[in-house]
From TrEMBL:
The keyword Membrane applies. Residues 30-56 form the Cadherin prodomain domain. GO terms for cellular component: plasma membrane. Residues 1-23 form the signal peptide. This is Cadherin prodomain domain-containing protein. InterPro entries: Cadherin_pro_dom. Coiled coil: none annotated. The keyword Cell division does not apply.
């Protein structure tokens, strides 16, 4: 074998092993924008009418 073939074979093996290690890891869940908790308690003034925006 010549030096070029050895280099190509070595690079191919390195890339193959790096892909294999990533394939063994469980996938991360997708990021969701917004709040980190699933529910919140909010106290709203009685003066706020139904349908009005809470934020001003």
């Amino acid at each position: 074998m010549n030096l070029g073939s050895v280099l190509v074979l070595t690079c191919t093996l390195l890339v193959g092993t790096s892909w294999a290690t990533k394939a063994d890891q469980p996938p991360k869940p997708p990021c969701r924008p917004g709040f980190s908790e699933s529910f919140y308690t909010v106290f709203v003034s009685r003066d706020l009418l139904r349908g009005q925006s809470i934020l001003k």
